[in-house]
Design brief:
FokI Restriction Endonuclease, Chain A, domain 1; alpha+beta; 44% helix; five-stranded mixed β-sheet; 24 helices; 14% strand; Arc Repressor Mutant, subunit A
């Protein structure tokens, strides 16, 4: 369990006063600690959740508390999140909207926040938390005092993503959460997705009601976009950034669409001054960066391998300037065989999480003092256990000389059964932003996932993210057949949303495509069946071959017309 913690990245934990109460839990006889022992835990937590043990642990001067007792359990069978019983210490600290406590998800978010910025120490072997010296100073500081502000400043500036966001805003121009999010995190990796802003504008241009607009702007975001929104809430509280409304523009099918995104941010004068502490500029002493092993990868199945590789990279680049070839030789001594493309993307990822990497010619050096970064003893032996998926991405990375490596995330998403929306969005972005096809992600009820076109050729796409491959079941084949027939007849009585208007009037030749991580079973029979019944040809293409096809198009080796011809084979496209 301890290896599955994701310290270093925080979502949905905004309020600094609640953070302080979480830290004050660990100070014996503080007002928060005392209320927990004498009132809240006896009243809110039942015996089955170890309330007596909780009270005992909270009654000592030097507390070391198991993470599970702090976070609590998930929602028990027969309950919903809204009525689940209180089962953790931090749940009891955080006030809910309709009840006196929060669920385990916010409790976990606040714990990760406190650990990530150095207020709590985390013992990985024991899976326990205790208060740090900085955390104790923070807990006993007077609310609103100068001392409290100085401690928060030190803590936040030790957290690399804070420095990354401030640096991106340094020039004084406002940026939306999507513009920041696409530059936060590791390149082309699940766990660091950002929704393409032009697709947000596409959706806003067709939203019919205020509710649709609000839902699109508040609910449609990638993982990195959520991190941006959370961190910027902290920076607003510190008065280092301010939230503004920003007008943004995108070229859509018939027009240039301009709209307003309210979740946009701009640095303040105080924020610019504070940023000098992060960079060590002029007379300001640079603050050490706290980098946790967990934050170096989150979602991939071989995240421990990636965390280890990036840990070795950070430690090596902290000693002196090194070239890519020297880094490769160094990693070989750790049992890791890598190439320059992979290392280049890793270095960009380090920059994107907020580590100050300087380049001198063809060599690189980390200019920050890094603290808190160690490989856990339990995973030091995973040096040779890179996953097949990572090996595949490394191989494809070498072949993408014209396509942005951020689209390597399509390989991850194609095998993630919970990532349908992100898979659709990133596919649409690859085709429209990177390759300049016209079209968009539709992806709502009774609409295809993605439609694109170029000159007279149009393509109707269904994205399917499956962990064990996609066999194209009959039901989903019939769904594609329905879309093809709706496009052929273009009768509003068949489908009042008229999704086919995404295509230009000049588009006269159509084909269909299924996009997935891998195809299995009798998918070819279903492709042929759709073709016979609709008199329309189509194809299946996996994420890897879609990327290779994109590379051929963008390099100029394959014309747009010939690319569409490939989707007429009624079979799987292989490049």
């Amino acid at each position: 369990m301890a290896e599955k913690r994701t310290f270093g990245w925080v979502q949905e934990a905004y309020t600094i006063s609640n953070l302080k109460n979480v830290v004050r839990v660990f100070v014996f006889d503080s007002a928060v600690n005392k209320k927990l022992r004498e009132d809240k835990i006896p009243r809110l937590i039942s015996d089955e959740y170890h309330k007596d043990e909780m009270i005992k642990l909270l009654s000592t001067d030097e507390m070391e508390i198991p993470y599970i007792l702090l976070k609590g359990k998930g929602t028990p069978k027969g309950f919903t999140r809204s009525n689940a019983p209180c089962s953790g210490i931090i749940q009891a600290v955080l006030p809910g909207q309709r009840k006196e406590y929060q669920s385990d998800w916010p409790a976990d978010s606040f714990l990760r926040w406190a650990v990530s910025i150095g207020f709590l120490n985390y013992d990985r072997d024991k899976d326990t938390c205790s208060i740090s010296e900085l955390g104790y100073r923070y807990a006993v500081s007077a609310d609103g005092s100068k001392e409290e502000k100085e401690i928060l400043t030190e803590a936040f500036l030790s957290y690399p993503p804070v420095c990354r966001i401030l640096s991106l805003l340094e020039n004084g121009k406002s940026m939306t959460k999507f513009e920041i999010g696409c530059q936060l995190g590791f390149v082309g990796e699940a766990g660091f997705t950002s929704i393409p802003q032009n697709l947000i504008l596409q959706g806003l241009s067709t939203a019919n009601t205020p509710d649709e607009r609000n839902k699109l702007l508040s609910d449609t975001e990638g993982t990195s976009d959520k991190y941006v929104r959370t961190i910027c809430a902290w920076l607003k509280s510190m008065r280092w950034v301010m939230q503004v409304s920003k007008e943004v523009t995108a070229d859509l099918r018939y027009m240039t669409h301009t709209d307003t995104i309210n979740q946009s941010y701009q640095i303040t004068l105080e924020g610019k001054k504070i940023l000098k502490y992060a960079t060590g500029a002029s007379k300001y002493k640079r603050i050490d960066k706290r980098v946790m092993w967990d934050m170096l990868a989150t979602k991939p199945s071989d995240r421990n391998y990636l965390r280890n590789r990036r840990t070795y990279l950070i430690k090596y680049l902290s000693t002196a300037y090194h070239s890519l070839d020297e880094i490769i030789v160094h990693l070989q001594t750790k049992g890791m065989t890598e190439d320059t493309g992979t290392i280049s993307d890793d270095i960009q990822g380090l920059i994107n999480i907020g580590i100050n990497v300087n380049r001198n010619g063809n060599t690189f050096k980390i200019m920050d003092s890094i603290v808190g970064l160690n490989i856990p003893d339990s995973v030091k032996s995973v040096a040779a256990t890179k996953s097949d998926l990572s090996l595949l991405k490394d191989d494809i990375r070498k072949k993408l000389n014209h396509i942005n490596h951020k689209y390597l995330v399509l390989i991850d998403l194609g095998f993630d059964g919970n990532a349908d929306r992100d898979y659709e969005l990133q596919t649409a972005d690859l085709l429209t932003s990177e390759l300049s096809f016209k079209g968009a992600r539709l992806g709502d009820t009774r609409k295809p996932d993605v439609c694109v076109y170029h000159d007279k050729n149009g393509l109707i796409i269904d994205n399917k993210a499956y962990s064990k491959g996609y066999s194209l079941p009959i039901k989903q084949a019939d769904e594609m057949l329905r879309y093809i027939e709706e496009n052929q007849k273009r009768d509003k009585a068949l489908n009042p949303n008229e999704w086919w208007t995404i295509f230009d009037d000049a588009v006269s030749k159509f084909s269909f495509a299924f996009v997935s991580g891998e195809f299995t079973g009798g998918f070819k029979d279903r492709l042929e069946n759709i073709s016979r019944r609709s008199h329309t040809n189509g194809a299946a293409i996996n994420s890897v071959n879609l990327l290779l096809l994109a590379e051929e198009i963008k390099s100029g080796r394959l014309s747009y017309g010939d690319a569409f011809t490939k989707f007429e084979c009624n079979d799987e496209i292989t490049m």
